[in-house]
Design goal:
two-stranded antiparallel ribbon
C-alpha cells in the first residue's frame, strides 16, 4: 500500500509567496503606486489562507485543474467584508489598533508600552519592532538609506516638544503640526519618524519627494506601517501632512484598509477625528 506523501517544499514556498503577493498587491492597488524599485518584497506576515494552503497535498499528475471561482477583485472585496474590525480595541492604549487623535487622547495620560526595544537608534514598542526591522532591511536591499529620527516618547517629553513648537509657531500653528501631550501616537510606541541618511529633508514636507519618502509610500504598507497624515486627509486626522510619520498597525489591517478604500484609521473604524481638540 502506498503512503500519502507530505507536500513538497516547493508547494509550501509557492503558497507562502502567493500569500505575500496578496497583501502587497492589495496595498499597491489602493495607493496606485507602481514598482519603481522592482517587485515588492514579501511582507512580514502572510494571510492565513496562504499558510493553510501550504498544508494541502499536491494535486496528482494528470488531474484537471479547477478554474478559479472568484476574480482577485471579488476575493479582495470578500476579505474586506469579512475582516473582524472588533478583534482589537481602538480605545485601549496598549492595543495595536488604538486610534489616537485630537478627539481621543491616550488613557491613562502617563501610559507607557509594557516593553520597548531599540531599533536603528530609536525606541519602539516590542510588538512593532520585528516589522520595523524587516522594513529597514527591505530598504537596504533596495539601496534606500533610511534613518529614524523619533520613536517612543513619554508624556513628559511630548509636553516639551509641543511647548517648543508653541514658542516658535504660536498655539494655533503648533496644533497643526505637533500633538499636545497625551494626544501623540509616539507615546504608544507604535509610531516612528523617518528621514534620509543625509538628513536634507528631515521633518520637512520635502521628504515625501525624496527617494526615501517615495520608497516608504510604496513599500511601508507591506510591512504593516501606515502613512498616517496625508494632504488629502487633514480634515479627518487633524494634522498637516507628515510624509515622514508612519504608524504600525500590522500587515493584515493595512491590507483590509486598502481593500475597503479607507485611507485613515478613523474612517475604517468609524472613529471621530478632526482638527479640534475635544
Amino acid at each position: 500500500m502506498s503512503r500519502h506523501r507530505a507536500p513538497s517544499s516547493v508547494t509550501r514556498r509557492g503558497a507562502l509567496v502567493a500569500g505575500a503577493a496578496w497583501v502587497a498587491g492589495a496595498f499597491a492597488a489602493s495607493s496606485g503606486l507602481g514598482g519603481r524599485w522592482g517587485a515588492t518584497a514579501a511582507p512580514s506576515a502572510a494571510p492565513a489562507e496562504a499558510l493553510a494552503a501550504a498544508q494541502v497535498p499536491p494535486t496528482p499528475a494528470g488531474t484537471p485543474s479547477t478554474p478559479p471561482t472568484a476574480s482577485p477583485t471579488t476575493a479582495t472585496a470578500t476579505a474586506s467584508a469579512t475582516f473582524d474590525r472588533t478583534a482589537h480595541s481602538t480605545g485601549e492604549a496598549s492595543s495595536p489598533w488604538v486610534v489616537v487623535n485630537k478627539q481621543h487622547p491616550i488613557v491613562p495620560a502617563d501610559y507607557e508600552p509594557a516593553q520597548v526595544v531599540r531599533v536603528a537608534g530609536e525606541l519602539v514598542s516590542a510588538v512593532a519592532a520585528p516589522d520595523l526591522e524587516a522594513l529597514l532591511a527591505h530598504s537596504r536591499d533596495d539601496g534606500v538609506a533610511l534613518t529614524l529620527v523619533s520613536g517612543f516618547r513619554t508624556h513628559e517629553y511630548q509636553e516639551q516638544v509641543h511647548r517648543r513648537s508653541v514658542a516658535r509657531n504660536g498655539q494655533a500653528g503648533a496644533d497643526r503640526y505637533s500633538a499636545r501631550a497625551g494626544y501623540s501616537e509616539h507615546q504608544t510606541g507604535l509610531a516612528v519618524d523617518f528621514s534620509s541618511a543625509d538628513g536634507s529633508a528631515t521633518l520637512s514636507p520635502r521628504f515625501g519627494e525624496t527617494d526615501e519618502g517615495l520608497w516608504l509610500a510604496e513599500h511601508a504598507g507591506a510591512h504593516g506601517w501606515l502613512l498616517r497624515y496625508t494632504e488629502a486627509d487633514q480634515a479627518v486626522t487633524g494634522y498637516n501632512p507628515e510624509p515622514w510619520h508612519f504608524r504600525w498597525v500590522g500587515v493584515e489591517l493595512v491590507a483590509a484598509m486598502a481593500a475597503a478604500g479607507t485611507p485613515t484609521l478613523e474612517q475604517f473604524f468609524g472613529v471621530s477625528g478632526g482638527p479640534d481638540y475635544a
